[in-house]
Amino acid sequence: MLNAWEVATMVAVVAGVVGFFVVLRGSAFPAHAIPNGAFAGAAGANLIGVNPLVGLGAFSLLAALGIGTLGRRSRPDVATALALVLMLALGAAFLSQSTQYEPQIYSLLFGEILGVSTSQLLPVAVLGGVCVIMVGVLFRPLLLASVAPEIAVSKGIRLRVVDSAFLLVVACATTMTVPVVGALLIFTLMIGPPAAARSFTSRPGVAMALSVGIALLTVWCAVASGYLWNWPVGFFVGTYSAGVYGVGRLYAARHLARRRHVLHVVAAG
Protein backbone atom coordinates (compact mmCIF):
# COMPACT_ATOMS: atom_id res chain seq x y z
CA MET A 1 0.00 0.00 0.00
CA LEU A 2 2.88 2.36 0.74
CA ASN A 3 4.32 1.74 -2.72
CA ALA A 4 0.86 2.31 -4.21
CA TRP A 5 0.48 5.68 -2.49
CA GLU A 6 3.96 6.82 -3.52
CA VAL A 7 3.68 5.81 -7.16
CA ALA A 8 0.12 7.14 -7.41
CA THR A 9 1.39 10.51 -6.21
CA MET A 10 4.14 10.56 -8.86
CA VAL A 11 1.72 9.58 -11.61
CA ALA A 12 -0.83 12.20 -10.55
CA VAL A 13 1.73 15.02 -10.57
CA VAL A 14 2.94 14.12 -14.06
CA ALA A 15 -0.59 13.58 -15.39
CA GLY A 16 -1.68 16.94 -14.00
CA VAL A 17 1.27 18.83 -15.49
CA VAL A 18 1.31 17.17 -18.90
CA GLY A 19 -2.49 16.88 -19.07
CA PHE A 20 -2.85 20.65 -18.70
CA PHE A 21 -1.23 21.12 -22.10
CA VAL A 22 -3.02 18.10 -23.56
CA VAL A 23 -6.36 19.81 -22.82
CA LEU A 24 -5.14 23.30 -23.73
CA ARG A 25 -3.87 22.13 -27.12
CA GLY A 26 -6.85 19.89 -27.86
CA SER A 27 -4.49 16.89 -28.08
CA ALA A 28 -6.75 14.33 -26.43
CA PHE A 29 -6.59 11.99 -29.44
CA PRO A 30 -2.75 11.76 -29.51
CA ALA A 31 -2.77 11.41 -25.72
CA HIS A 32 -5.02 8.38 -26.20
CA ALA A 33 -3.07 6.91 -29.13
CA ILE A 34 0.41 7.06 -27.61
CA PRO A 35 -0.44 4.97 -24.52
CA ASN A 36 -1.92 2.36 -26.84
CA GLY A 37 1.38 2.34 -28.68
CA ALA A 38 3.11 1.80 -25.37
CA PHE A 39 0.70 -1.05 -24.62
CA ALA A 40 1.86 -2.81 -27.79
CA GLY A 41 5.52 -2.25 -26.90
CA ALA A 42 5.11 -3.71 -23.44
CA ALA A 43 3.33 -6.73 -24.89
CA GLY A 44 6.16 -7.28 -27.38
CA ALA A 45 8.82 -6.91 -24.69
CA ASN A 46 7.03 -9.42 -22.50
CA LEU A 47 6.88 -11.86 -25.43
CA ILE A 48 10.65 -11.83 -26.01
CA GLY A 49 11.56 -11.71 -22.34
CA VAL A 50 12.72 -8.08 -22.17
CA ASN A 51 11.86 -5.60 -19.42
CA PRO A 52 8.43 -4.17 -20.36
CA LEU A 53 9.70 -0.66 -19.57
CA VAL A 54 12.07 -0.95 -22.57
CA GLY A 55 9.19 -1.85 -24.88
CA LEU A 56 7.06 0.90 -23.41
CA GLY A 57 9.69 3.53 -24.02
CA ALA A 58 10.53 2.37 -27.53
CA PHE A 59 6.95 2.18 -28.78
CA SER A 60 5.90 5.40 -27.04
CA LEU A 61 8.76 7.17 -28.79
CA LEU A 62 7.90 5.59 -32.15
CA ALA A 63 4.23 6.52 -31.76
CA ALA A 64 5.09 10.13 -30.88
CA LEU A 65 7.55 10.51 -33.76
CA GLY A 66 5.17 8.81 -36.18
CA ILE A 67 2.24 11.05 -35.26
CA GLY A 68 4.44 14.16 -35.41
CA THR A 69 5.99 13.27 -38.78
CA LEU A 70 2.83 12.08 -40.53
CA GLY A 71 0.83 14.95 -39.07
CA ARG A 72 2.96 17.45 -40.99
CA ARG A 73 2.22 15.74 -44.30
CA SER A 74 -1.48 14.99 -43.79
CA ARG A 75 -4.31 15.77 -41.42
CA PRO A 76 -3.15 15.28 -37.81
CA ASP A 77 -6.27 13.33 -36.85
CA VAL A 78 -5.75 10.90 -39.74
CA ALA A 79 -2.09 10.40 -38.81
CA THR A 80 -3.04 9.79 -35.18
CA ALA A 81 -5.76 7.31 -36.16
CA LEU A 82 -3.36 5.37 -38.38
CA ALA A 83 -0.78 5.18 -35.59
CA LEU A 84 -3.46 4.02 -33.15
CA VAL A 85 -4.73 1.29 -35.48
CA LEU A 86 -1.22 0.02 -36.20
CA MET A 87 -0.25 -0.09 -32.54
CA LEU A 88 -3.44 -1.86 -31.50
CA ALA A 89 -2.90 -4.45 -34.24
CA LEU A 90 0.66 -5.08 -33.06
CA GLY A 91 -0.47 -5.33 -29.45
CA ALA A 92 -3.11 -7.90 -30.35
CA ALA A 93 -0.56 -9.91 -32.34
CA PHE A 94 1.99 -9.89 -29.51
CA LEU A 95 -0.55 -10.83 -26.86
CA SER A 96 -1.94 -13.67 -28.96
CA GLN A 97 1.49 -15.32 -28.83
CA SER A 98 1.82 -14.95 -25.06
CA THR A 99 0.97 -17.65 -22.53
CA GLN A 100 -0.14 -14.90 -20.10
CA TYR A 101 -2.82 -13.51 -22.37
CA GLU A 102 -5.58 -12.48 -19.96
CA PRO A 103 -3.40 -11.26 -17.04
CA GLN A 104 -1.20 -9.33 -19.44
CA ILE A 105 -4.13 -7.57 -21.06
CA TYR A 106 -5.50 -6.50 -17.69
CA SER A 107 -2.12 -5.32 -16.45
CA LEU A 108 -1.24 -3.31 -19.56
CA LEU A 109 -4.66 -1.77 -20.11
CA PHE A 110 -5.79 -1.10 -16.54
CA GLY A 111 -2.54 -1.26 -14.55
CA GLU A 112 -1.81 -2.89 -11.21
CA ILE A 113 -1.22 0.02 -8.89
CA LEU A 114 -1.70 -2.15 -5.80
CA GLY A 115 0.96 -4.55 -7.06
CA VAL A 116 3.76 -2.03 -7.61
CA SER A 117 7.10 -3.31 -6.30
CA THR A 118 9.77 -1.22 -4.59
CA SER A 119 12.11 -1.72 -7.57
CA GLN A 120 9.63 0.13 -9.83
CA LEU A 121 9.60 3.32 -7.76
CA LEU A 122 12.97 4.69 -8.86
CA PRO A 123 12.39 4.34 -12.65
CA VAL A 124 8.97 5.93 -12.29
CA ALA A 125 10.42 8.78 -10.20
CA VAL A 126 13.24 9.41 -12.71
CA LEU A 127 10.95 9.45 -15.75
CA GLY A 128 8.46 11.61 -13.88
CA GLY A 129 11.17 14.10 -13.03
CA VAL A 130 12.26 14.21 -16.67
CA CYS A 131 8.67 14.94 -17.75
CA VAL A 132 8.25 17.80 -15.28
CA ILE A 133 11.63 19.31 -16.22
CA MET A 134 10.81 19.11 -19.94
CA VAL A 135 7.49 20.86 -19.40
CA GLY A 136 9.25 23.51 -17.33
CA VAL A 137 11.75 24.16 -20.13
CA LEU A 138 9.04 24.24 -22.80
CA PHE A 139 6.44 26.08 -20.73
CA ARG A 140 6.54 29.56 -22.31
CA PRO A 141 6.96 28.59 -25.99
CA LEU A 142 4.50 25.72 -25.57
CA LEU A 143 1.92 27.97 -23.93
CA LEU A 144 2.27 30.62 -26.62
CA ALA A 145 2.17 28.06 -29.43
CA SER A 146 -0.97 26.55 -27.91
CA VAL A 147 -3.05 29.71 -27.42
CA ALA A 148 -1.63 32.08 -30.07
CA PRO A 149 0.32 30.21 -32.77
CA GLU A 150 0.50 33.26 -35.07
CA ILE A 151 2.18 35.33 -32.37
CA ALA A 152 4.49 32.41 -31.57
CA VAL A 153 5.64 32.28 -35.20
CA SER A 154 6.23 36.03 -35.24
CA LYS A 155 8.47 35.62 -32.18
CA GLY A 156 10.57 33.01 -33.94
CA ILE A 157 9.12 29.94 -32.26
CA ARG A 158 9.16 26.91 -34.56
CA LEU A 159 5.76 25.31 -34.13
CA ARG A 160 6.79 21.95 -35.57
CA VAL A 161 9.67 21.66 -33.12
CA VAL A 162 7.41 22.58 -30.21
CA ASP A 163 4.74 20.11 -31.34
CA SER A 164 7.26 17.28 -31.67
CA ALA A 165 8.83 18.11 -28.31
CA PHE A 166 5.43 18.00 -26.62
CA LEU A 167 4.62 14.63 -28.17
CA LEU A 168 7.91 13.33 -26.76
CA VAL A 169 6.85 14.61 -23.32
CA VAL A 170 3.60 12.66 -23.67
CA ALA A 171 5.61 9.60 -24.69
CA CYS A 172 7.83 9.94 -21.62
CA ALA A 173 4.79 10.34 -19.35
CA THR A 174 3.23 7.27 -20.95
CA THR A 175 6.35 5.18 -20.35
CA MET A 176 6.31 5.90 -16.61
CA THR A 177 2.57 5.59 -16.07
CA VAL A 178 1.30 2.68 -18.17
CA PRO A 179 2.86 -0.01 -15.92
CA VAL A 180 1.16 1.61 -12.93
CA VAL A 181 -2.29 2.77 -14.06
CA GLY A 182 -2.51 1.20 -17.52
CA ALA A 183 -2.90 2.53 -21.04
CA LEU A 184 -6.55 3.47 -20.60
CA LEU A 185 -6.45 5.07 -17.16
CA ILE A 186 -3.53 7.42 -17.83
CA PHE A 187 -5.70 8.90 -20.58
CA THR A 188 -8.40 9.48 -17.96
CA LEU A 189 -5.97 11.23 -15.59
CA MET A 190 -4.54 13.39 -18.39
CA ILE A 191 -7.98 14.61 -19.42
CA GLY A 192 -10.39 14.67 -16.45
CA PRO A 193 -8.48 16.69 -13.80
CA PRO A 194 -6.90 19.20 -16.25
CA ALA A 195 -10.24 19.79 -17.99
CA ALA A 196 -11.87 20.36 -14.62
CA ALA A 197 -9.10 22.76 -13.61
CA ARG A 198 -9.62 24.83 -16.75
CA SER A 199 -13.30 25.10 -15.86
CA PHE A 200 -12.41 26.75 -12.55
CA THR A 201 -9.81 29.25 -13.81
CA SER A 202 -8.31 30.63 -17.02
CA ARG A 203 -4.95 31.57 -15.49
CA PRO A 204 -2.33 29.11 -16.83
CA GLY A 205 -0.18 28.79 -13.71
CA VAL A 206 -3.16 28.46 -11.39
CA ALA A 207 -4.87 26.01 -13.74
CA MET A 208 -1.80 23.77 -13.89
CA ALA A 209 -1.41 23.77 -10.11
CA LEU A 210 -5.12 23.04 -9.69
CA SER A 211 -4.84 20.26 -12.29
CA VAL A 212 -2.11 18.59 -10.24
CA GLY A 213 -4.13 19.02 -7.04
CA ILE A 214 -7.26 17.48 -8.56
CA ALA A 215 -5.26 14.59 -10.04
CA LEU A 216 -3.68 13.92 -6.64
CA LEU A 217 -7.06 13.99 -4.90
CA THR A 218 -8.49 11.68 -7.57
CA VAL A 219 -5.84 8.96 -7.29
CA TRP A 220 -5.60 9.15 -3.50
CA CYS A 221 -9.36 8.75 -3.16
CA ALA A 222 -9.33 5.99 -5.78
CA VAL A 223 -6.64 3.99 -3.98
CA ALA A 224 -8.42 4.39 -0.64
CA SER A 225 -11.78 3.45 -2.17
CA GLY A 226 -10.31 0.40 -3.88
CA TYR A 227 -8.84 -0.74 -0.58
CA LEU A 228 -12.05 -0.18 1.37
CA TRP A 229 -14.55 -1.70 -1.06
CA ASN A 230 -12.34 -4.17 -2.95
CA TRP A 231 -13.30 -2.77 -6.34
CA PRO A 232 -10.81 -2.02 -9.14
CA VAL A 233 -8.88 1.20 -8.56
CA GLY A 234 -9.40 2.05 -12.21
CA PHE A 235 -13.15 2.21 -11.74
CA PHE A 236 -12.76 4.86 -9.06
CA VAL A 237 -10.16 6.81 -11.06
CA GLY A 238 -12.52 7.06 -14.02
CA THR A 239 -15.60 7.79 -11.91
CA TYR A 240 -13.96 10.46 -9.76
CA SER A 241 -12.34 12.12 -12.81
CA ALA A 242 -15.69 12.32 -14.58
CA GLY A 243 -17.36 13.57 -11.40
CA VAL A 244 -14.91 16.38 -10.77
CA TYR A 245 -15.15 17.42 -14.43
CA GLY A 246 -18.92 17.59 -14.07
CA VAL A 247 -18.54 19.82 -11.01
CA GLY A 248 -16.16 22.04 -12.97
CA ARG A 249 -18.59 22.43 -15.85
CA LEU A 250 -21.41 23.32 -13.45
CA TYR A 251 -19.19 25.93 -11.82
CA ALA A 252 -18.23 27.39 -15.20
CA ALA A 253 -21.88 27.53 -16.30
CA ARG A 254 -22.96 29.31 -13.10
CA HIS A 255 -20.02 31.73 -13.32
CA LEU A 256 -20.91 32.57 -16.92
CA ALA A 257 -24.58 33.05 -16.03
CA ARG A 258 -23.61 35.37 -13.16
CA ARG A 259 -21.39 37.48 -15.44
CA ARG A 260 -24.15 37.77 -18.04
CA HIS A 261 -26.60 38.84 -15.32
CA VAL A 262 -24.21 41.53 -14.08
CA LEU A 263 -23.63 42.82 -17.63
CA HIS A 264 -27.38 42.88 -18.25
CA VAL A 265 -27.97 44.84 -15.04
CA VAL A 266 -25.21 47.33 -15.94
CA ALA A 267 -26.56 47.75 -19.47
CA ALA A 268 -30.11 48.21 -18.18
CA GLY A 269 -29.01 50.71 -15.54
Structure description:
This protein has 269 residues and is mainly α. The protein has a single domain (2-268), classed as ABC transporter involved in vitamin B12 uptake, BtuC (Orthogonal Bundle), CATH 1.10.3470. Helices cover 87% and strands 0% of the residues. The chain contains ten helices and no strands. The chain has helices at 2-24, 28-48, 52-73, 76-96, 101-110, 121-147, 149-154, 159-200, 204-229, 233-268. It is globular, with a radius of gyration of 19 Å. The model has no long low-confidence stretch (mean pLDDT 84).
Features:
269 residues, ABC transporter involved in vitamin B12 uptake, BtuC, 10 helices
**Span between termini:** 60 Å
| CATH homologous superfamily label | ABC transporter involved in vitamin B12 uptake, BtuC
Q: Give Rg in angstroms.
A: 19 Å
Number of strands: 0
Can you write the helix and strand succession as a string? HHHHHHHHHH
Secondary-structure map:
Layout: H1 2-24, H2 28-48, H3 52-73, H4 76-96, H5 101-110, H6 121-147, H7 149-154, H8 159-200, H9 204-229, H10 233-268
Care to give the gist of this entry?
The protein is mainly α. The chain has ten helices and no strands.
